[in-house]
């Protein structure tokens, strides 16, 4: 069958988009969306599959892995293409995001004389906070390499700067600079010095519990999707029977414990911003779950058990 591929372009007067013919491809009657994208890429090298967003005349998005017949696309049909621009793999994005805080915390903690003009004798809180934060982001890098399976292969290249800025600046540079400063070490900055060993142990214990729990939920999500597929299923088990995204919930618990332990405004800022972002993600994805799965548990909350 022959399929026409067109691109919508805005008119100068700002009216509705006008289609512009790009090319025509020939495929088998049983062809899939992936085969159509590959055929387009063959004719237009710049438009590799991850850079293409294909829709029908009624704006239904063609999903990878689906048959074209599912969308009533046959001989002579017209498909509309949007160029999503340069893309970058999600796994690479995660590597870039998490390496920033690792670098900032390592250098600011270990080379205090270059940063503050003096050698800092770190307090117990600073030492433990450094270990916990480094462990957190190293864990995230290892999960990226060995645990996560991504439903989407890529994202727009430009977005990596926005995503990385959140981690590199808020949980990296800003947090590390204030957390390891001489004023924080001697307790004159925001009363950050915690002298009670019992409370210190409590916060460390909560942080480690949340980190381990977060890892368990990530492994659960990994096991839902067979390798090389985009399969989506209802997650169940540890944490998931209470909320749709226990991985976000345990992340919030971990950073709340670290914020209480350090009494750092920089840590509080990152916690507030991160919690707001995870709340927005959780609510959006929770609605998607409920729409996608008619039997999705009605009592399950999005982010906070029994509350939200």
From TrEMBL:
Where is this protein localized, as stated in its record?
Answer: Endoplasmic reticulum membrane
What does the entry give for GO biological process?
Answer: very long-chain fatty acid biosynthetic process
Q: Which UniProt keywords apply?
A: Lipid biosynthesis, Lipid metabolism, Membrane, NADP, Oxidoreductase, Transmembrane, Transmembrane helix
Q: Give the UniProt entry's GO cellular component terms.
A: endoplasmic reticulum membrane
Q: Ubiquitin-like domain location, by residue?
A: 1-81
Fetch the InterPro entries from UniProt.
Answer: 3-oxo-5_a-steroid_4-DH_C (IPR001104), SRD5A/TECR (IPR039357), Ubiquitin-like_dom (IPR000626), Ubiquitin-like_domsf (IPR029071)
Transmembrane stretches in the record are 200-217, 238-258, 264-283
- Tell me yes or no: is Chloroplast among this UniProt entry's keywords: no
Q: Which family does it belong to?
A: Belongs to the steroid 5-alpha reductase family.
Protein known as:
3-oxo-5a-steroid 4- dehydrogenase
> What lineage does UniProt assign to this protein's organism?
Eukaryota, Fungi, Fungi incertae sedis, Zoopagomycota, Kickxellomycotina
């Amino acid at each position: 069958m022959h399929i026409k591929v067109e691109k919508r372009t805005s008119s100068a007067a700002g009216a509705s988009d006008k289609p512009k013919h790009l090319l025509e491809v020939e495929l088998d009657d049983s062809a899939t969306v992936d085969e159509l994208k590959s055929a387009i890429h063959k004719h237009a090298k710049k438009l590799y599959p991850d850079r293409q967003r294909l829709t029908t005349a009624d704006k239904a998005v063609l999903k990878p892995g689906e048959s074209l017949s599912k969308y009533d696309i046959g001989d002579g049909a017209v498909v509309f293409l949007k160029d999503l621009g340069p893309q970058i793999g999600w796994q690479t994005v995660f590597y870039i995001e998490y390496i920033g805080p690792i670098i900032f915390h390592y250098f600011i903690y270990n080379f205090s004389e270059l940063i503050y003009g003096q050698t800092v004798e770190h307090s117990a809180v600073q030492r433990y906070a450094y270990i916990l934060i480094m462990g957190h982001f190293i864990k995230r890098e290892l999960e990226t390499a060995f645990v996560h399976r991504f439903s989407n292969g890529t994202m727009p290249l430009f977005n990596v700067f926005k995503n990385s800025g959140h981690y590199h600046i808020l949980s990296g540079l800003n947090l590390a600079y204030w957390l390891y400063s001489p004023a924080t070490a001697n307790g004159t900055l925001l009363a950050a010095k915690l002298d009670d060993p019992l409370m210190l142990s409590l916060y460390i214990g909560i942080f480690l519990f949340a980190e381990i729990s977060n890892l368990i939920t990530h492994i659960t999500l990994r096991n839902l999707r067979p390798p090389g597929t985009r399969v989506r299923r209802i997650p169940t088990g540890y944490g998931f029977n209470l909320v749709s995204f226990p991985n976000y919930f345990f992340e919030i618990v971990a950073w709340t414990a670290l914020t209480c332990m350090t009494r750092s405004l920089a840590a509080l800022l990152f916690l507030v911003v991160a919690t707001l972002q995870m709340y927005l993600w959780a609510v959006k994805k929770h609605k998607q779950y409920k729409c996608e799965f008619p039997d999705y548990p009605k009592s399950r909350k999005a982010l906070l058990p029994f509350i939200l």
